[in-house]
Amino acid sequence: MPGETSTIRVEPLDATFGAVVTGLRLADLRAGEWEQVHAAWLTHALLIFPGQHLAREEQIAFARRFGALEFDIAPISNVKPDGTLRVEDNSDDVVKILKGNMGWHADSTYMPLQAKGAVFSAEVVPTVGGHTGWADMRAAYDALDAATRARVDGLSAYHSLHYSQGRLGFNPKDKGSEYSGYGFHDGPVPLRPLVKVHPETGRKALLIGRHAHAIPGMEPAESERFLDELVDFACQSPRIYHHDWRVGDTVIWDNRCLLHRATPWDMGQARVMWHSRIAGDPVTEAACAA
Ligand SMILES: [Fe+2]
Fold first, then answer.
1. Is there a domain that residue 288 lies in?
2. Confidence grade of residue 176 (pLDDT, cut at 50, 70, 90)
3. For the segment 33-91, what is each residue's pLDDT rounded down to a tens digit?
4. Which end of the chain is more exposed for a tag (fewer CB within 10 A), N or C?
5. Ion ligand 1 — residues with CB under 5 Å?
6. For residues 123 and 286, what is the distance between their CA atoms, to the nearest angstrom?
7. Are 20 and 48 within 8 A, CB to CB?
8. How many whole angstroms from 7 Cα to the centroid of ligand 1?
């Protein structure tokens, strides 16, 4: 377009999804840039923006461009409010959640409304580890053999943080927990199809991960084995990417078609990340009747 000066570069990752985006400032997008970012997000599902160094209000404002927020911003961190580090001994309820999230999952599938996506930024990173991995559930669905694809098309599973944390022995204390309790939904357990049709692209994706359990019509042990095998198959190269964070990096991912996880790090080192969660559309991200 005459006079167009956008310098955005979108470089796809060496995977079935994801791209690194440079040549723009998320805190100060120019005319036409938001539309390019949004289109790239729908295509690649994960966008990585190095070196943005967003202030918290700037991150919230960027996240709001994608829709209403489930929550505006929260730390994902092993640093206590007093600045000391949490002890990695599994008696700390925040550590239990951090460790639980090292299993592949989608956000808020255990709530009545699954999240649409998330903006995530790095403020303090450890020297080794503490990566974030994502896995492309569109490509995973496409890679299933015909018989398995036909099977999963007709199945659903319940999603619960009580289940996923309990399976690890990581449920919070009854009293005196330092974890907010967010996600331990006590209403009807959401039931979701194993295959989600993306509301904006129409592509099918597996909706699985650590919160999914108890497929109706299967014995619990059979359901658990089947779901574990699906995750093991789905979360393999070339359908995965793990990001080695630099301070100031920001990412946006599509929670309607990707799983994600953290990787371990020495919790003797601080890791401070900021998470803004975009709410799902009630028309397309609501659970089936429980
Ligand atoms: Fe998560």
1. no
2. confident
3. 999 999 999 999 999 999 999 999 999 999 999 999 999 999 999 999 999 999 888 88
4. N
5. 107
6. 32
7. yes
8. 32
pLDDT at 113 over 80: yes
Number of domains the chain is built from: 1
List, in order, residues 6 or more apart from 189 with CB less than 8 Å away: 110, 158, 159, 160, 290
Give residue 236's pLDDT.
98
Whether pTM > 0.90 for this model: the answer is yes
Residue 286 lies in a domain: no
Cα–ligand 1 centroid distance for 230 (angstroms): 19
**Dist. CA 117 → ligand 1 center (Å):** 10
| CATH number, domain containing residue 195 | 3.60.130.10
The CA 25 to ligand 1 mean position distance, Å, reads 25
Residue 283 lies in a domain: no
Q: How far is the CA of 106 from the centre of ligand 1 (A)?
A: 6
The domain of 146 spans: 9-278
The Cα 261–Cα 257 span in angstroms is: 14
Q: Please give the distance, rounded to the nearest whole angstrom, from the Cα atom of residue 52 to the centre of ligand 1.
A: 21
Torsion of the alpha carbons at 169, 170, 171 and 172, rounded to the nearest 10: 140
Looking at the domain assignment, is residue 195 inside a domain? yes
Using the predicted structure, report yes or no on whether residue 3 has a pLDDT greater than 90: no
Task: Quote the strand ranges of 18-171, DSSP E.
Answer: 19-22, 46-49, 69-77, 117-124, 132-136, 156-159
- Separation of 147 CA from ligand 1 center, angstroms? 30
Ligand 1 centroid to residue 103 C-alpha, Å: 9
